[in-house]
Amino acid sequence: xxxxxxxxxxxxxxxxxxxxxxxxxxxxxxxxxxxxxxxxxxxxxxxxxxxxxxxxxxxxxxxxxxxxxxxxxxxxxxxxxxxxxxxxxxxxxxxxxxxxxxxxxxxxxxxxxxxxxxxxxxxxxxxxxxxxxxxxxxxxxxxxxxxxxxxxxxxxxxxxxxxxxxxxxxxxxxxx
Length: 176
Ligand SMILES: [Fe+2]
Hints:
Layout: H1 4-33, H2 37-63, H3 83-110, H4 114-144, H5 148-158, H6 167-173
The structure holds fe (ii) ion.
Fe (ii) ion (FE2) binds near residues 17, 20, 50, 53 and 97.
């Protein structure tokens, strides 16, 4: 059972994670169109991770006795000024997601919903990593992306990122 305020925020978070996925897929498409294959790959992997996040929230609501009620997912931007804008927007977006997760945590704490507080622990740690990755991508672009050779090397580096499904998803799909 859930307090209604917490249940509503958890449902909104499923949609917010789907929006994150859409945003990163849209960025991946723009990067692919502009022949930054490595950057495009990095954001494609990021898209898959965000879909996992959405499904973790979805399964948690079901497993913990809540009702899933999904809202509309907003359309992502489709045009970007360049790689720098994409990297800045992705960092801003992760900071926003962190604030959403903190807001759910605050609402859950307020009504003594300790199972949700505990559930969110993984996401709080995950957001530290997400913000760090986004900020590193931006910083490395600023440091080394200024000339064609440096940019090519960054692009090649990001081409190596491989998607692995988080064990957290299997845990909640299994009915934690
Ligand atoms: Fe996420």
